[in-house]
User: Fold this.
Amino acid sequence: MSHTVLITGATSGIGRALALDYAARDMNLLLIGRDEARLADIADLCRARGAEIASGRLDVRDREAMATWIAARDAENPIDLAIACAGIVSGTNAERPLDTEEALRAVLAVDLIGAVNTIEPVLAVMRRRRRGHVAMVGSLAGLRGFPSSPAYSMAKAAVHAYAEGIRPALAREGIAVSLIAPGFVTTPLNQDLVAPQPLKMSAAKAARLIHAGLDRRKPLIAFPLILYMGLRLLTLMPARFGDWLLDRPGVDVPLTRENEKIEP
Ligand SMILES: NC(=O)c1ccc[n+]([C@@H]2O[C@H](COP(=O)([O-])OP(=O)(O)OC[C@H]3O[C@@H](n4cnc5c(N)ncnc54)[C@H](OP(=O)(O)O)[C@@H]3O)[C@@H](O)[C@H]2O)c1
Assistant:
């Protein structure tokens, strides 16, 4: 029996590595991204591994287009698992100590509303079937506000809270919800980041960890474990200590070029 997996952010980094990791015979992969060439490339690579591919050149900020495409693909092959992975980052540095107004809204539009635009239409069909699995990609940066990327932390914290909040009701309907909280992963997202990036791992390794966790329908897939535990511990410590520890001089998280609204 074939298995249908939808992945947003499939054109780069973790989403691309996940697509490759899932690509096999008897797999239908629904791959979403914006970059046409990179979308065609990952689709070809996955087909070469024996998977059936439908690629959607879509912007996750486009609620209507996402809902229409997802409903149409689900009618062809009912979606078993959807991974909302698409995301952007923006942050601060010594000259720009706060997120700009536009960057803050762009990050929320993609990382938070984009994730909602992905899982809502998927949940609509899964709830009718009373089975399925959705996964939302958060971040260890969602466990605590990071002075280097406050808007990103806000968006990811909201993703965490939403995934946790919907989990019990959906479990009663036979649908699993997994929250994925990665630490540093080598991808284009953080290639220009100037900051300590402890225990950074490859996208292929992150994809293997995520895939293994999703196979077990784990509610939380957070890694590396030591960094996750450290951050959880930090949230129990005095706020001033956390502020001091995370407010490192010389850190530079580049400004996103994305906007809140889709460029015409
Ligand atoms: N890398 C890390 O260290 C790290 C750590 C924790 C969490 N994460 C999270 O993991 C997820 C993937 O990040 P990554 O590191 O793999 O980043 P990446 O290599 O930059 O890939 C981001 C992906 O998101 C897609 N995307 C961005 N904006 C989009 C939009 N408006 N509509 C549709 N697709 C859009 C991109 O598609 P196009 O290029 O085709 O536009 C690309 O496929 C993100 O949610 C990120 O926050 C990453």
Q: What stands out?
A: The chain has a mean pLDDT of 97.
